[in-house]
Amino acid sequence: MAVLTMDEVVYTYRNKYQTVYALNGVSGEFNRGRFHAITGRSGSGKSTLMSLLAGLELPGRGTIRYEGTPTTDLDRNKYRRDCAAVIYQSFNLFPLLTARENVMYPLKLKKVEKEKCRAYADEMLVQVGLTKEYAGRFPAQLSGGEQQRVAIARALAADAPVILADEPTGNLDSGNGKHIVEILKHLAHEKNRCVIVVTHDMAIANEADEVFRMEDGRFV
């Protein structure tokens, strides 16, 4: 069974003058062990869909299900903490926490004992190619590629079955970008995660197992 499914999902933005259909009847499914890419021009609905898959918003109509349960029926705080980890283009690291402390954050939310948090965070940093010398550095002391690896390590620490990445290579050079894609592919194929990447970069899409192209709020 697919870990995430969408059935005729509609989401609208309304203002004084008009109703804009950001999503207009989107259906599809995402599976564990697969690297999925969602492509499309700016304004096609990619980021809105990502917000709904992450449980930050709910559909206006239609249904998104996680392992068969509609997101409307989930404890969405728990869902975001335990089930769906988001990697942002802008990294979203806490600037006053070290790399290690950023990775420890989701573990602390789960009440994991401090020393176990620390050891596991260091292990996750090593998995994304950052040795212990980086663990004590603050985000401002890291390059863009290093910050993105910390963001991925934090998503790994959450141990979520679904990993959502919003333009994860948008702020990186081609070399760092390629490495991040390899990490995400490894998470899907070797760690059995459901990895969903929103991107406008067809070089990333070409690495995916499955590509969904969005246009005017629909898959085409």
List the helices and strands and how they pair.
Layout: E1 4-14, E2 19-30, E3 35-39, H1 46-53, E4 61-66, E5 69-70, H2 76-82, E6 84-87, H3 99-109, H4 114-127, H5 132-135, H6 144-157, E7 162-166, H7 174-189, E8 194-198, H8 202-205, E9 210-215, E10 218-219
Walkthrough of the structure:
The chain has helices at residues 46-53, 76-82, 99-109, 114-127, 132-135, 144-157, 174-189, 202-205, and strands spanning 4-14, 19-30, 35-39, 61-66, 69-70, 84-87, 162-166, 194-198, 210-215, 218-219. By secondary structure, it is of the alpha/beta class. A hairpin with a 4-residue loop joins strand 1 (4-14) and strand 2 (19-30). The model has no long low-confidence stretch (mean pLDDT 90).
